[in-house]
Amino acid sequence: MAEGYEVFKVVLKRGDLLLSCFAPSDLQVSYNVGKKSLPKVGKLFCFDNINSAKDFIKDMGYFNSEKTFILRCETNSFEFLTHIESIPDGACDNNAEDSYRNFWKDPQIWEESHCGTEIPNGTVFCDYVIPLEVVE
Q1: Which of 1, 50, 58, 62 could be cross-linked to 74 through a Cys-Cys bond (beta carbons 3.0 to 4.6 Å apart)?
Q2: Within 13 Å and on the Cβ side, how many CA atoms surround 124?
Q3: Rounded CA gap, 6 and 99, in Å?
Q4: What is the pLDDT of residues 20-40, one digit of tens each?
Q5: Which residues have CB under 8 Å from 89's CB, separation 6+?
């Protein structure tokens, strides 16, 4: 791979679009095979292995699995946020968009004052991804 690292991104299919799962509509990213995808704020939530991505889909029982896909992607780097335990899920904040924006300003401070969901196993954060293929 030209970029150096393989990661996996779980996306939802809406019509012909592959979109972010949990991001509020104003912050959703559209993914296209072969084209660089950048977050609108912060970083992209991805997985360092396909099994973690599959487990995430199983844990998201309220999503229709027929509309949920896994993209195999490449990126130049990724990081684990080991100093936090939860991430925004959009369900428990009145303003989900502000919650996501504030999370990326300082994840640790955000976590102390907001509800969220536990970070799924294998979660990594990327500055961008280039989807290579839909694997599942």
Answers
A1: 1
A2: 23
A3: 28
A4: 887 777 888 999 999 999 998
A5: 22, 116, 117
Residues in CB range of 2: below 8 A, 6 or more apart: 74
Q: Which two tokens stand for residue 38?
A: 């950048």
Kindly report the pTM of this predicted structure. Answer: 0.79
Token pair for 121: 């196993």
Q: In angstroms, rounded to a whole number, what is the distance separating the alpha carbons of residues 11 and 29?
A: 9
pLDDT given for residue 88 in this prediction: 57
Which amino acid is present at 87? I
Q: Which tokens is 46 given?
A: 């991805």
* R_g (Cα) of the chain, nearest Å: 14
Copy the structure tokens of residue 37: 């995808």
* 8 Å CB contact between 81 and 110: no
Token pair 């990327």 in the structure block, residue = 126
CA angle (127, 44, 64) in 5-degree steps: 155
